[in-house]
Structure formats: C-alpha cells, structure tokens
Amino acid sequence: MTGEVAPAAAGRVAARSRSMPLVFLVFGIFFVISFVTNILGPLVPDIIKSFSLSLTLAGFLPFAFFVAYGVMSIPAGLLVERFGQKPILVGAWGLAFAGSFLFASFPSFAVALASLFLIGIGMTMLQVAINPLLRVAGGEEHFAFFSVMAQLVFGSASFGSPLVYSYLVTRLHSADKDVAAPLAVLERVVPPELPWVSLYWVFAVVTLAMVVVLAAVRLPRVELAADERAGGASSYRELLGNRFVWLFFFGIFAYVGTEQGLANWMSRFLETTHGLDPQVEGARAVAYFWGLMTAGCLLGLLLLKLFDARRVLVGFATAAIAGLAVALAGPARVSFVAFMLMGFFLSVMWSVVFSLALNSVALHHGSFSGILCTGIVGGAVVPWLVGWLGDLVGLRAAMCLLFITLGYIFSIGLWAKPLVDNARISPRELLARLTSRFGSAQP
C-alpha cells in the first residue's frame, strides 16, 4: 500500500465532499466578507467629523485596511497549504472579530487604524482560502457557475451594508422610543455622539457567529489545484523577471485604487461639494455604486462571449473616464447619479485584467495570482493620495488622480498580448442559436 488514491476512488472522495449546504455556507462567508469590507466609504465623513481629521489622516483608514492585502496575500496562500482551510477560516474570522470588538469598545482614530488592519488581515486570509473550498463543495464542473453566484452574493452585501448603516445612524438615540429590541441594546453601548460605531457592534456579533459556525462545521479536505498553489521562491524570481508580470501587477493596483478611491471619497465629495447628507444620499450613492457593479458583471459575462476581452476593457474604461468627468464636474443630481454609475463602468475590470494577466504567462499561475493579489495594496495607496492631495488642492482636484489610474487600465486593452484569447462567438451565431432554441420550443 502506497497511500495513494486510485482515480476512481479519488472521484468518489470528491463526489462525497460535494454538499449544497456547504456551498450555501461559502456563499454566507462571501456575504459577510463583503458586508464588512465595503462599508468604510459611507463612514469616512462621520469619522472625519467625530475625530476632527484632515483628509490626509482620513486617507489612512482605507490604507490601514488594504495594506493588509499587500502584506498578507502571499503568506496566506502558504498558510492554507500548510494548515488547511478550516484553521485559516476560523483564525481569520477570529481576527475580524477582535478588530471589530476592539473598535466598538474603544472608538478612537488610533484604535480604528489597528482595528482595520486586523480586519484586513482576516479578510485577506478568507479570500485566499474560500475559493478552493467552493470548488470542492460544489464540484469542479460547477465551479464557474458557483463563482458567478458568489460574486452576486458578494455584490448584494456591498449594496446592503451602506443601507444598514443609514438605518442605524438615523434611528439610534432618536426621539422615537418605540424601537426594536436590538436597537435598544445598541443604544446602551453606543455613545450618543458616535451612532455609526453601532455598525462595528453588528460586525462583532456577525464575525463571532462565523467563528462559532465554522468551528462546529466539518469541512472536506481540499487538495489545492495547480493554479491555487503558492509556489516556491524560484517561481517568484522567474515571474518577477517578466515585465508583463509587473505591468499587470500595476493593473490590479490601479483598478483597486480606482474602486476604493471612489467608494471611500464619493460620499465626502457629495457632502462638501453639493451639500448632500452623507448618512442618507452619500450612503445611498455608495450602496448603488456596489449594486450597479454587480449588475454590470452580468452584462460583462455576455459581452465577453461576443467580443475580445481587450475591446471590452477599452470600452468600459472609456465609459468610466467619461463618467468620472461628469461626476466631478456636474451639478448635484447629475454628480450623484454619475458616481453610482461608476460601479457599472468598473464592473468588468477586475475579472478582465486578472484573466488577461494569467493568460499572458505560461507557468506558475498560483504564484502569479499571489503577486496580482498583492496589487490590492492599491486600495491602500490611492485613497490616501487622494486625501493628501485633497488637503492641498481640494477634493475635486484630488479625485482627478483617478483619471491616471483609469487611463492605465485603458492602456492594458491596447498592449496586452495574452497567449490565449477569451472564447467567444459572433453576434450572428448567438442570434442564430437563440432563434433556433426559441423556434424549437414552438408547438
């Protein structure tokens, strides 16, 4: 006996590990990750007022969170290979709970930075560990479908969390004493002058629940696929000598920087430039920014079946550049709508840039993925630069920095030379298939 599993036996093991309840648990994890991760933008105006911050100091808030991705993306992959999914998932939620509870209990700017870094480390570990688990739970043949479903779940939470924030801050400590029991509990622990801190008590409860659930659930053993392994030092040295690796690294850097630069500063911009309430209109703009990003992903799936990915990227980047110009220069209502639509224009960029990158190198995709994920640190650097420039020249001029990052993303569609193009069909062929299908359905 060698301890190896015969192919037929391996298939039975894989089949036994498939579980729809586990798939739904993974969807739940995606939901909570998004709920916790994408709330900072609506909070920025409140945090600035509560702690009397300059825009530069406020820029350190997303920096503290997203720098964790730069620090932890590659180590997290190594930890998953060494210890497996379950300890990493439980530990990651434990860090997220610690960060949420710390800030909810001791709200101050310094504690906020430490808290966001802890939560960021936890979210990085989760995102590295969760995709292989989804592949095993749902089956490799269904992985693409479930991945799209997970992104829809992720987007729904990003849409919902700003609305939860708006609900909490407008009802806590209000004159209306006929409040629900959870609100009554929050009123006792949240300072009246800091109603937005209530959201971190919600995060603390939710993340603690995730720790308990994952500690109790039995997870299948996950054998990492070749493109999910972190790789050795030699693979990183080889990749870092490839100029396309660096070019695509900065592509991810530019995309996440643009996304977070918008998400974190649009509410403050709408408040200071147009006088819109950040707890109502500002929160709604951020919510629909994420919601329309999810809707755009659905359109992107269709367009990528019809057109070259590079042409799709150029088209969406052009629309985003025009949308940003309108958002920054237009009157209040036009600016409000344009900021929301920016989510739609950004929707396909992450997946297209990432796929173009992986299709541009022949080997070491696991290591390359780790390098690309390190580029998420752009979400730390670009929002901070916007805040720093905002103190010097004003927020409207500072947000023009995003034209540079969008311009770089546009350029990727011009110079990318993937070894494998995205599979697609002609519009005529698609129309013929649809006509044939609906025609055959006629009585």
Give a written overview of the molecule.
- The termini are far apart.
- The model is unreliable at 1-16 (pLDDT under 50).
- The chain has helices at 7-17, 20-37, 40-51, 55-83, 85-105, 109-138, 143-171, 181-189, 198-216, 233-240, 243-274, 278-306, 309-329, 332-346, 349-358, 365-374, 378-393, 395-398, 401-415, 427-440.
- Helices cover 79% and strands 0% of the residues.
- Helix 2 (20-37) crosses helix 7 (143-171), helix 4 (55-83) packs antiparallel against helix 5 and helix 11 (243-274) runs parallel beside helix 16.
- It has one domain: Up-down Bundle (Growth Hormone, Chain: A).
- The chain is built from 20 helices and no strands.
- It is mainly alpha-helical and 443 residues long.
List the helices and strands and how they pair.
Elements: H1 7-17, H2 20-37, H3 40-51, H4 55-83, H5 85-105, H6 109-138, H7 143-171, H8 181-189, H9 198-216, H10 233-240, H11 243-274, H12 278-306, H13 309-329, H14 332-346, H15 349-358, H16 365-374, H17 378-393, H18 395-398, H19 401-415, H20 427-440
